[in-house]
Write a structure and sequence with these properties.
Blueprint (H helix, E strand, L loop, with lengths): L1 H10 L12 E2 L2 H11 L6 E5 L5 H7 L4 E5 L6 H7 L6 E4 L8 H6 L4 E6 L2 H14 L3 E9 H7 L10 H6 L3 E9 L4 E2 L6 E8 L8 H11 L7 H9 L3 H10 L13 H11 L1
Parallel strand pairs: 2-3, 2-5, 3-4, 5-6
Antiparallel strand pairs: 1-8, 6-9, 7-9
This protein binds S-adenosylmethionine (SAM).
Length: 273
């Protein structure tokens, strides 16, 4: 497989585009384990973001009902014509997934899972797009830079915990299901990666999501400042008002944003409102 893919890419004259994060997976065992770790089943429809040379697309298509793969780079067309040959359940859509209208896309679909091996710059916007707007997404399994994986699954009070972690908690629970060394990508990137699996529908109870989002972003607007200072700056509270809100929520006046759990942010956002 590994040799075949490299040969096909070379024969098609494909030039890797670093700016699109094009580090492909060629290792057959790794592909099988990513599909396994994603938890998808025979009856599922999978949306793959960034199919590259189609190796993961093929591994998925052999295991599920249908794969709809998005890819921005049209120069992969001749490669994909060869790597996906003979599959009648894999469709490639040449569009930037970040620009896809999710409501329109989902209107023609039942539930689906998302599986992706993402470039760094797409990770946060894609996850936020799905967390905030996807109605029919049942689960998400993404390969990201190991450091981002740690942040996504971080616990309150740790250095990795941040706005992204607290936002994800709105909608999903996530866990690192596989660590992948850089040596298994072609070409080899400068960082190691990890697969994070999100289970949608296991988020925390929040009455007003917009207020929660604003509170979380305020809390992390400056990590060096106390929560009180960040609330004063963002919401233009007086110091006394900010202190009263924090006391009502049982939060230490000297606390920083990263010490609050998503549940505490939910309570705080209600008081702020
Ligand atoms: N899935 C393949 C694999 O695992 O070998 C390719 C992974 S590679 C890290 C990421 C792919 O995503 C690249 O082929 C890149 O062109 C594509 N891509 C980058 N941004 C994208 C976007 N916004 N929408 C769709 N595809 C994108």
């Amino acid at each position: 497989m590994e040799k075949d893919i490299k040969k096909i890419l070379a024969e098609c004259g494909f030039g890797f585009k670093k700016q699109l994060g094009q580090n492909f997976i060629t290792d057959k065992e790794l592909l099988a384990s990513i599909v396994e770790a994603s938890g998808v089943r025979r009856e599922d429809t999978v949306v793959e973001i960034g199919c590259g040379a189609g190796t993961l697309t093929r591994a998925l298509a052999e295991r599920v009902k249908k794969v709809i793969a998005f890819e921005v780079d049209k120069s992969l067309i001749p490669v994909l014509e060869r790597t996906l040959a003979g599959l009648d359940n894999a469709e490639v859509v040449f569009r930037d997934f970040l620009k896809v209208d999710l409501a329109e896309f989902e209107s023609g679909m039942d539930g689906y899972f998302v599986v992706a091996n993402l470039p760094y710059y797409v990770t946060t916007p894609l996850i936020m797009k799905l967390i905030e707007n996807a109605e029919k997404c049942k689960g998400l399994s993404v390969m990201v830079q190991e450091e981002v994986a740690e942040r996504l699954c971080a616990r309150a009070g740790t250095a990795e915990y941040g706005a992204l972690t607290a936002m994800v908690a709105l909608r999903a629970e996530c866990e690192i299901v596989k660590r992948v060394p850089r040596t298994l990508f072609y070409p080899r990137p400068n960082v190691d990666s990890a697969v994070v699996r999100f289970t949608f529908g296991r988020g925390i109870e929040v009455k007003d999501k917009a207020a929660y989002k604003k509170t979380v972003h305020a809390a992390f607007s400056s990590r060096r400042k106390t929560l009180e200072n960040n609330l004063v700056n963002t919401f233009k509270f007086t110091r006394a008002e900010a202190q009263e809100i924090l006391s009502k929520c049982g939060v230490d006046l000297k606390a920083r944003g990263e010490t609050l759990s998503p549940e505490q942010f939910a309570m705080l956002s209600e008081f702020i409102k």
